[in-house]
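Course assignment 3, question 2. Fill in each field.
Student: A.L.
Task: Predict the tertiary structure for the chain below.
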Amino acid sequence: MTEKSDVLLSSVPVRLEPRDAVTRLGLIALATDLTTERDAANLLPRDHAALHVARIAFQNPTTPENLRRMLPRLTDTAALLLPDEPVAAIYYACTAASVAMGDDAVISAIQAAKPGVPVVTPTAAALAAFGALGIRKVALMTPYLPETTAPMADYFNRHGLDIVSAQCLGLEDDRDMARVSAQTIIDAAIAADRPEAEGVFLSCTGLPALGVIETLEARLGKPVISSNQAALWKLLSHAGLAPTARPGRIFTAMPPEQAA
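Answer field:
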């Protein structure tokens, strides 16, 4: 048996970096989300920004009733994001739930734990993106069931957009939505588009749409907005941060670091 070692307190003085050396951003992701963190990693500047994630309990299918069940859990989940540390903004990553619960209810529940911290929902971010691009007529494509897609179309119509076409893939599990192929997303977006549409919205934070936006914009000749693209654009704008990539016209028309 070895003798107990003595532990000496180091004589090296400890110097701490300032709290604002790294801009800290929060993400509330569904327990089943397979996509949002990866999309964020492709856009956030790694040298001076960090994304901190708390996951919220969720069980499929993605019906409006199931989505609304997250609301009572939002405050406790938000409280897990860096207690007593500054957070520049928080992204709640569920488009359909933001519609089912309402943007204001989501924001209030999160700010109950994080007073004064800006909260981004993908729905409000999409509205802001279309507003920045001067777009009113939109074609909507979702991976959801019809009963989850209909409230999405109604949401945008109520908020001043004209949904000229709404199509869905009929999936009920967000883990399946995360595995939809790039070619399927491209084909479905083209099928949903209409000549009168000024832009296309690809709904769902689980849908891996970020990588096909530039391809679709070139094919369709019009702006394409996805849930994570719009929300991360808005999240970066709250922090005044420049992205490492600029997928889609929104990042050129209104750079997030200039929109803050």
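Instructor remarks: The longest helix spans residues 146-158. Strands lie at 23-30, 49-56, 89-93, 119-120, 137-142, 162-168, 199-202, 224-226.
Grade: pending
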